[in-house]
Automatic annotation (TrEMBL):
This is MFS transporter. Keywords: Membrane, Transmembrane, Transmembrane helix. It comes from the Bacteria. The chain crosses the membrane at residues 7-33, 53-72, 79-99, 105-126, 138-157, 163-180, 214-236, 256-277, 284-304, 310-331, 371-390. InterPro entries: MFS (IPR011701), MFS_dom (IPR020846), MFS_trans_sf (IPR036259). It comes from Sphingobacterium thermophilum. Residues 11-395 form the Major facilitator superfamily (MFS) profile domain. PROSITE patterns: MFS. The lineage of its organism: Bacteria, Pseudomonadati, Bacteroidota, Sphingobacteriia, Sphingobacteriales.
Length: 406
């Protein structure tokens, strides 16, 4: 049974603001890494190594947290995850504002990562289960579109205030949002599943027990592979790529990330609306995959690129990877109520984690063929895998989600 219109609007709003704070806290370390490391005494020669250490700790937290929160959401309810995850990462971010050494910094980012892992999957699952099947795309579209704007706020807060204050702002926003969540309601589908005592809920064993189910899950992960390569390599490593493209000045990764996330926000809106118009999420993801290929190849062939052109291309590449919410929605719609949150929570975090092997492959290719060709080959390979995986998944736009995996 769906909630009242007023309750659904409140639910979409708090899920959107939760993802907004989630994205802010997710990327704030990348933005304040250098000033924060300088302040706690990290030498210039250790900036990159220590930065990778802290970022990998946060990524490890995301991977572990995706499993933890997904199981909790399917066993005990989506609302419990929305409360528990935001409390954890908000307190962790406030704690980050007091760190004095790299090891403490890394450990707190690990804890923050665990908390951050639960927000999007639980929010998308709850919104999808609480809205009519022909309208739920609008809800998940709004969640993602508002959420990624948190990256833009993170950039400006880091410009206006020092790094410790930037962490305090993120944690404070989370605690304020926690109060807003007091009026949210549980998914009717989950409430119904809770009464079915014989049904396994949030079971990783159930997820991986059936070969067809495992393959379906892997295909869901694969359609998101190009997203984080574009953000994590093509944009984040823009200073190095710009140098290889003979840019007249050093390209700003910070500005590039901001423009990329602005593109992602608008892309999420367009992808959601296009899916409603076409009555298909698969067609939309295919169109956006082609946009990723076109804009990335354009970028990697832009010799003599100026900063202005780079920022425009970062925006366009961001627009292309703006099917993020559609990807998570597809994953949620492919599985029954007793596994839906587990899949929707683990999928985005595993896709983020897939950046590690992607960058390893990219690094090997750089040594063989140079940075530009390596980036192009890796991007095209990831896109080919994503498009193939997409063809193997069934259309889920108008699927009734009130069923169980057995």
């Amino acid at each position: 049974m769906k909630g009242s219109k007023k309750n659904v609007v409140l639910l979409v709003l708090v899920a959107s603001l939760g993802y907004f704070v989630d994205i802010y806290d997710l990327i704030i370390f990348s933005i304040v890494r250098i000033p924060s490391f300088k302040d706690i005494g990290v030498g210039e020669e250790l900036m990159r190594v220590k930065g990778e250490y802290v970022l990998n700790m946060q990524m490890g937290g995301l991977l572990l947290g995706g499993l933890i929160w997904g199981v909790i959401a399917d066993k005990f309810g989506r609302i419990k995850v929305l409360f528990g995850s935001i409390l954890m990462y908000s307190l962790a971010n406030i704690s980050n504002g007091f760190v004095q050494d790299v090891n403490t910094y890394a450990m707190i980012r690990f804890i923050a990562g665990i908390g951050l892992a639960g927000e999007l999957g639980a929010g998308i699952t709850l919104v999808s289960e609480s809205m009519p099947k022909d309208k739920r795309g609008y809800g998940t579209m709004f969640v993602a579109a508002v959420g990624v704007l948190g990256a833009i706020l993170a950039y400006y807060v880091s410009e206006w205030f020092d790094w410790r204050t930037a962490y305090f702002v993120g944690g404070g926003m989370g605690l304020l949002l926690l109060l807003m969540r007091m009026g949210t309601f549980e998914s009717g589908m989950f409430a119904e599943s809770a009464s079915q005592q014989h049904i396994q809920k949030g079971s990783l064993k159930l997820l991986f027990a059936d070969r067809k189910r495992v393959v379906r899950y892997i295909y869901c992960l694969c359609i998101g592979l190009p997203i984080w390569f574009v953000v994590g390599v093509l944009v984040t490593q823009s200073p190095e790529i710009g140098k290889a493209l003979q840019a007249p000045q050093v390209l700003s990764a910070g500005k590039g990330v901001m423009f990329t996330y602005l593109g992602i926000s608008l892309g999420d809106i367009f992808a959601g609306m296009l899916a409603q118009w076409l009555k298909s999420r698969r067609k939309v993801v295919f169109i956006f995959q082609l946009m990723i290929i076109a804009t990335s190849v354009w970028y990697l062939n832009s010799y003599g690129i100026t900063e202005t052109k780079f920022l425009w291309l970062a925006f366009l590449m961001g627009f292309g990877v703006g099917y993020w919410a559609t990807f998570v929605t597809i994953a949620a719609e492919q599985f029954g109520t007793n596994l839906r949150a587990t899949v929707a929570t683990t999928a985005p975090n595993f896709v983020r984690g897939a950046l590690i092997p992607s960058t390893m492959l990219y690094g090997l290719l750089v040594n063989q063929m140079g940075i530009i060709m390596a980036a192009m080959v890796t991007l095209l390979l990831l896109s080919a895998i994503a498009i193939f995986a997409l063809t193997q998944l069934k259309e889920s736009f108008d699927r009734d989600l009130n069923y169980f995996e057995e």
